[in-house]
C-alpha cells in the first residue's frame, strides 16, 4: 500500500493491474465498486479490466 491512489482509477496502479488480471482470468462481465466512480474512471477501469465497471450507486439509479 505504498503506492498512491490514482485519480484515473481510484486505486493504486499495482492494484488495478492485479484486479484486471483476475477479471480477465475469470472472464468477469461486470466489476462493481462500492465507492462512487466518475464516467472517466469507469471508462479507464473498464478498458483495463476488460468488462463493464459500475459503482454501487449505479445499482440503485433510476432508469438503469
Task: Provide a descriptive summary of the structure in words.
This protein has helices at residues 13-25, 39-49; strands at residues 30-33, 52-55. The chain is globular, with a radius of gyration of 12 Å. It is built from two helices and two strands. Strands 1-2 form a two-stranded parallel ribbon. The model has no long low-confidence stretch (mean pLDDT 87). By secondary structure, it is an alpha+beta fold.
Q: What separation lies between the terminal Cα atoms?
A: 34 Å
- Helicity range of the residues? 25-40%
- pLDDT averaged over residues: 87
Strand order of the largest sheet: 1-2
Derived structural class: alpha+beta
**Regions with pLDDT < 50 over 5+ consecutive residues?**
none
Molecular shape: globular
* Total of DSSP H or I helical runs spanning 4+ residues: 2
Count the beta strands.
Answer: 2
- Report strand %: 5-15%
Summary keywords:
single chain, 64 residues, alpha+beta, two-stranded parallel sheet, 2 helices, 2 strands, 38% helix, 12% strand, globular
In short:
This protein has about 60 residues and is an alpha+beta fold. It has helices spanning about 15-25, 40-50, and strands spanning about 30-35, 50-55.
Secondary structure elements and pairings:
Layout: H1 13-25, E1 30-33, H2 39-49, E2 52-55
Parallel strand pairs: 1-2
Amino acid at each position: 500500500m505504498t503506492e498512491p491512489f490514482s485519480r484515473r482509477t481510484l486505486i493504486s496502479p499495482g492494484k488495478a493491474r492485479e484486479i484486471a488480471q483476475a477479471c480477465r482470468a475469470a472472464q468477469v462481465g461486470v466489476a462493481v465498486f462500492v465507492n462512487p466512480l466518475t464516467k472517466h474512471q469507469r471508462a479507464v477501469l473498464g478498458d483495463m479490466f476488460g468488462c463493464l465497471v459500475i459503482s454501487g450507486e449505479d445499482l440503485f439509479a433510476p432508469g438503469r
